[in-house]
Amino acid sequence: MDTYTKRSMKNSKILLIALFLLGGVLLASCGAPLSGSSWPGVSSNGDTVYVAYMQHVYAVRAADGSMIWRFPEKAGRQMFFAAPVLADDQLLVGDYENVLHSLDPNTGVEKWLFAQAQADWIASPLVVGDVILAPNADHFLYALSKNGSLLWKFETGRALWAQPVSDGETVYQASMDHKVYAINIRDGQKLWSVDVGGAVIYSPALDAEEGTLYLTTLARNLMAINTRDGSIRWQRKFEGGMWTQPALKDGRLYLGDLQGMVYAISAADGTEVWSQKVDQPVTGKAAVLDSRVVFPTEDGSLIAMSLEGERLWSRTFEGKLYTGPVVIGDRLAVGIAGGKEFLKMVSLDGQDLWTFVPPK
């Protein structure tokens, strides 16, 4: 079997993970089924790391990796996948039993739940002011008050896997129906929609000042969209499939593809600034810091590059990385799938600081 065929098979297997997600199964490298929530969703407020993984949501001290609480205390039917979202005095997290939970971020006690959705919560919600914007796999974007009451809902053509973004007045929602929608945040009315030619499974990057959305599609396109009217400013086709959100910093977009290439792209016109081969599929959003960008790969590696494309360091974990690291000051929180440990904190040069081990 030649190298190209092997790479194509590997990339197809990674895409199948996404395609089977709604059915509640994921394909492991050995072909055995795993549960629908098979990699951790990680977020942080600086002092605490919140992790949604399998049958629990965990609050973990960022300083030392000790557990503060978990929800529920005893495992039940629900499975959690998307990264929790902290909004003032509540932590929002959806499950695979169609329920969106509001938890007390200090204690993990449930404050309220929203159970009107008809499918899984795959994407994280977004909080804008007093409005919770929650996309569901039942095709609807739900707008809720801070106490969980329904304000409005907006229907798209297919499942919503991407967290929305907003400039404070308009919410932009990407869908598996190949469209991006601009919606009035006050009343849920559509302002415009645009067909982007492929399913979108990751949240766009928004430059509100420039009025531009940047997104990748499963049709291997990276594109820039005018937020005023939905017109396409530019688009760029890649050879490798893309399973990542572009990371925007200082006029550049950093991203990788499933053929093991990483790129810096000009946000102004889509031209390539630099590219480097890392040999493994890039399967999550890069973390961009002041002097470096850190890419996650499917084989469980973090690869750090300078902002000009020079390779700085790499390290490999036991397991696989399907989401990017979360920057917490001068540290990186890493969610790991399929290994003995599912959450680690490392330094900016990749050295272990602590490993989270949940109590039995």
TrEMBL record:
Residues 141-236, 237-354 form the Pyrrolo-quinoline quinone repeat domain. It holds the Pfam family PQQ_2. Transmembrane segments: none annotated. SMART domains: PQQ (SM00564). SUPFAM superfamilies: Quinoprotein alcohol dehydrogenase-like. Signal peptide: none annotated. It comes from the Bacteria. This is Pyrrolo-quinoline quinone repeat domain-containing protein. It comes from Bellilinea caldifistulae.
